[in-house]
């Protein structure tokens, strides 16, 4: 996740409130929404222009679109930060938090929550995000893993009960993929996961998929169709995501042989890089 630039955030405050008279809650929200829509519209226009640019190679288009994706994330986070800093006790702060809470790291999220004041701080969503933040802190990189128990198929006694500790802390590095069958980005990461599994599996390394927020029958079907031939836990639902403060999937974590959390939020090429580094390759 990218760290917001404080000076940029402060500069955006003027976009939210520039009148001498105190704006109403509705006016604050409207101003914030207009600014958000303006940023998104510019992003979409840049993406469409790039995609239709016949002078660029596919690689150049991808690189340029990645820059635009990074920029829109930075801009949206900056706008939300400015809004919360200026109007932390107003309802617009809640909208801003909802827009970007999953884009920022734990330290940034803690700063945003610290700036939310008054009745807004007692909102159910704010409390949910606060609980998630505490879970993130207790399962940050360097912390020991948190165990959990799953009844995988309640209607089938032969499938039984499984613990996370059946796989973690058993002397191997384990790459754990929290995913769901309906999740497009999860499926997009599977080739990367399969590559590291096929390349490095053995006495020192293994892969585990943990299906969350999913019907176990859909998980089984998708796992078969997608060629997931490594260890799996299904029907985990929100148990591990609550414990590990996981707001979105895929969420990929590398655990050490003793169960220490080595890396969180791995994606793309960073997956293999983390595994190679851990294995000393």
Distance between the termini: 26 Å
Number of strands: 7
User: Major sheet: order of its strands?
Assistant: 5-4-3-6-7
Radius of gyration: 21 Å
Strand content: 5-15%
What does this structure look like?
The chain is α/β, with parallel strands linked by helices and 281 residues long. The protein is built from eleven helices and seven strands. Helix 3 runs parallel beside helix 5, helix 4 runs antiparallel to helix 5 and helix 6 packs antiparallel against helix 7. It is globular, with a radius of gyration of 21 Å. It starts with 5 loop residues before the first helix and ends with a helix. The N terminus is likely disordered.
Short description:
This protein is an alpha/beta fold. Helices cover 52% and strands 11% of the residues.
List keywords for this structure.
two-stranded antiparallel ribbon, 11 helices, 5-stranded mixed beta sheet, 52% helix, 11% strand, disordered N terminus
Per-chain topology:
Elements: H1 6-11, H2 13-16, H3 25-51, H4 58-87, H5 91-100, H6 106-114, H7 124-138, E1 149-151, E2 161-163, E3 173-179, H8 184-200, E4 205-211, H9 216-226, E5 231-233, H10 239-244, E6 251-255, E7 261-263, H11 269-279
Parallel strand pairs: 3-4, 4-5
Antiparallel strand pairs: 1-2, 3-6, 6-7
Helix pairs in contact: 3-4, 3-5, 4-5, 6-7, 8-11
